[in-house]
Design goal:
The complex is a heterodimer of chains A (about 120) and B (about 240). With about 120 residues, chain A is of the alpha/beta class. Chain A has a single domain, classed as 3-Layer(aba) Sandwich (Rossmann fold), CATH 3.40.50. Helix content of chain A is about 40%, strand content about 20%. The longest helix of chain A is centred in the N-terminal third of the chain and has 10 residues. In chain B, helix 1 runs antiparallel to helix 2 and helix 3 runs antiparallel to helix 5. By secondary structure, chain B is α+β, with helices and mostly antiparallel strands. The mean pLDDT of chain B is about 85. The chains are: A alpha/beta (about 120), B alpha+beta (about 240). At the A-B interface, helix 1 of A face helix 1, helix 2 and helix 3 of B.
Chain lengths: ~120, ~240
């Protein structure tokens, strides 16, 4: 099943705008750091997918991911990390923390769409 | 007489065109899938699988090309939209940084702006230069000496590196009308982003044309707004006395 409602967590306004254009067939919920994203989850229980940056103020993506995976209400929601952290160990750390996929910035639009379709 | 569209109207039209292009691309992809399936069936039936395979391959190549062009357009649209979406100088600078990092893949960069009335350049914004105490960009000032950066500051030509005496990736001159007001220096790309591609060159050209004007428009607005507030405060003070 294709996700319908996607939570975008990134501190870059450019990335939010990019997703608005690229993913306009989906309903997007926007958050700019991990804390705001947790708040969004409590307000939107029907989130189908989370697109997550790592380096953000207040609460990092990995800390947010840890909290999501520890919450029985959201632990099954797939999380795609989209980050400039491109080392092999960063990818492993993200996947071990429970991410369903890891995409490196800058990313190709088709690459992201294919990952979303796959999930 | 016809009025020229405002920048906001133009961006709106561009956005709509981009949406149409996305729809067309999606329809084309779907059409191609159906066609491939139908061709596969008929080719098998007729035993002419070679011609069918060639058609399929050509179609796939064209689809990939169309997808590529669409991606380029989307990046350009989003970058332009964000650069002109605000009149806050800090936000414009943040957008320039986001374009450099998120779209171009710059791990280290410096935005150099000429100090008014001098030939010096300040480092208005940087990333990855925290330990650069003795380098070209120490103490938030560009010391001069990188041949590519110096040349771009001089003649306003966008240059790609590396070259003799310089390891930088690119120097993007920033122009407002005919004046060169600074340079965006891409010093190093992320390890997973090995080279700048053709579509990145489009973005560099866009930055050269739009970043400085967006930044200076925001600065002018900010200064005017500050002066206006000061005047308003003075008027209020005079009235209350």
């Amino acid at each position: 099943m294709q996700p319908r409602k996607i939570l975008v967590v990134d501190d870059s306004k450019l990335i939010h705008k990019m997703f608005e254009v690229l993913l306009r067939q989906f309903t997007l919920v926007h958050a700019h750091d991990g804390l705001e994203a947790l708040q969004c989850l409590s307000n939107h229980a029907d989130i189908d997918l989370i697109l997550l940056d790592i380096n953000m103020p207040r609460m990092s993506g990995l800390e947010f991911l840890k909290q999501v995976k520890g919450d029985t209400a959201f632990q099954d929601v797939p999380v795609v990390i989209i980050s400039t952290e491109g080392k092999e160990e960063d990818t492993i750390r993200g996947l071990e923390a429970g991410a369903a996929a890891y995409i490196k910035k800058p990313f190709g639009n088709q690459e992201l769409l294919e990952v979303i379709q796959r999930l | 007489m016809m009025q020229s569209p405002t920048p906001n109207e133009l961006m709106g039209k561009l956005g709509i065109t981009l949406e149409r292009a996305q729809d067309l691309f999606a329809a084309l992809t779907e059409e191609s899938r159906s066609l491939s399936a139908a061709q596969g069936d008929s080719a098998n039936a007729a035993g002419d699988s070679d011609a069918s395979e060639r058609d399929r391959e050509e179609l796939t190549v064209r689809l990939v090309e169309a997808e590529h062009q669409l991606g380029r357009l989307m990046n350009l649209y989003v970058a332009t939209f964000q650069l002109h979406a605000t009149l806050d100088p800090g936000e414009v600078q943040a957008t320039i940084a986001e374009i450099a990092v998120d779209l171009l893949g710059a791990e280290r960069f410096a935005l150099l702006l000429r100090v008014e009335g001098t030939n010096e350049c300040e480092v208005a914004l940087s990333r990855g230069l925290e330990g650069d105490e003795d380098g070209y960009y120490a103490s938030d000032k560009y010391r001069g000496g990188d041949p590519i950066v110096d040349a771009s500051l001089q003649d306003g030509v966008l240059r790609m590196g590396p070259a003799e005496g310089s390891d930088i990736v690119a120097a993007v001159p920033l122009r407002v009308q005919d004046a060169i007001v600074g340079v965006l220096v891409l010093i190093k790309l992320f390890d997973h982003k090995t080279i700048l591609r053709a579509e990145d060159r489009d973005l560099l050209d866009l930055l050269a044309a739009h970043a400085a004007s967006a930044l200076f428009a925001a600065r002018v607005y900010s200064n005017t707004d500050r002066k206006l507030r000061t005047l308003e405060s003075l008027v209020q003070l005079v009235r209350s006395t």
